[in-house]
Amino acid sequence: MRFGWVRPFVLTAVLSTSLGLAACGRDAATTGADAAANAEAATFFLTSNARAEGVRTTASGLQYKVLNSGPSGAPSPDRNDLVRVDYEGSLTDGTVFDSSFAKGVPFATHVDEVVPGWIEALQLMKAGDEWMLYLPPELGYGAQGQGNIPPNSVLVFRVKLLDVAPVPGGGRGVGLATG
Question: What's the sign of the alpha-carbon dihedral 134, 40, 149, 17?
Fold first, then answer.
């Protein structure tokens, strides 16, 4: 595997953090008024979606559907690893709020620096997999929302895991010392 994409990771991480912080100024009155209605809509969507063909639901409530499987034996990341992904994020009404596909630049991040639904899903995926993810509000941005994402929204992502760069000393093969 080639890991040349890891070098610009630091710049990407700084830009992502800056963009995330810029989106924090939301109108509290608007978010409070919509939160309850969005929570009801989220429950309805997830209940219906769980019955859709090919959709699997984990214990946490994360729903996913495998679109394409990567090669057998491809690595799966642990929560410490760097990953490079292409993704498109939308709301259940189809409104796209972000897309690395549209930008033409894959997104690189540590697995543990994204929303909880992504952390769980990425560790289940292997390099080359492409999945649809359906994140309940509590595995996304929850009651506070984020930027253009209303509070208590289900987040829908198409994610393609392009590459995994294991971080030395990560969680692989680490056991308990009993001496």
Answer: negative
CA distances to 50, 75, 117, 157 from 62, rounded to whole Å, are: 10, 21, 6, 12
Separation of alpha carbons 109 and 165, rounded Å:
10
Amino acid occupying residue 111? V
pLDDT at 64: 98
Q: Under a CB-based contact definition with an 8 Å cutoff, are residues 146 and 137 in contact?
A: no
- The values of phi and psi at residue 168, to 5°, are -55, 135
- pLDDT of 102 reads 97
Is 60 exceeded by the pLDDT of residue 173? no
- Which one, of 126, 123, 127, 156, lies nearest residue 139 by Cα? 156
Angle at 70 between CA 154 and CA 171, to 5 degrees: 75
What is the pLDDT averaged over residues 93-112?
96
Count of CA atoms in the C-beta half-sphere (13 A) of 42: 27
Largest CA distance in the chain: 57
